[in-house]
Amino acid sequence: MVQTRNAILPDVKAIHAIIQPYAGNGTLLPRTVPELCENIRDFVVAEENGIIIGCGALHLYGIHLAEVRSIAVDPKAKGQGAGMLVVEALLEEAERHHVTCVCLFTRIPDFFAKMGFIVASRDELPDKIYKDCIHCPNLYACDEIAMVRGKLPELYLEQRGSLNIPIPLVRLER
Length: 174
Prior knowledge:
Layout: E1 2-6, H1 12-24, H2 33-38, E2 43-48, E3 51-62, E4 65-73, H3 82-96, E5 101-106, H4 109-113, E6 118-119, H5 126-131, E7 145-150, H6 154-160
Parallel strand pairs: 4-5
Antiparallel strand pairs: 1-2, 2-3, 3-4, 5-7, 6-7
């Protein structure tokens, strides 16, 4: 039976091993071992019979926004519900922190739509853009779909006007 729990430092090696193949093919942003250690408190793992088969993290930008990131499941364990359980655990964590909106960027929007996420404009997520996307070689030609669950707060919408986003972000046509 698959269960989730908060990650601890000894889990870093397994988390890294699960994330790396997805980072290698461009599905996820790469995460180094030191980076995983620094952010281990953000991670949840899914395990079955004591073996870690999936992971994900919740990055808090503030009470107005959090991001579900680094969702990955060992290919041998796909279809067992581990990914869904990880996302549900991360959403519960966001609720505990009273976060009003959770975002993510994905190439599999149907998976996240089942959990109440809806497609959003990338321009509505400058926190994410300036934290991570700014370093991505695909910044202006991103093929990921931005999704949110919850309402973008008014404060957040007001801030957007003062950020001077330099060039409109575009999504590649498929």
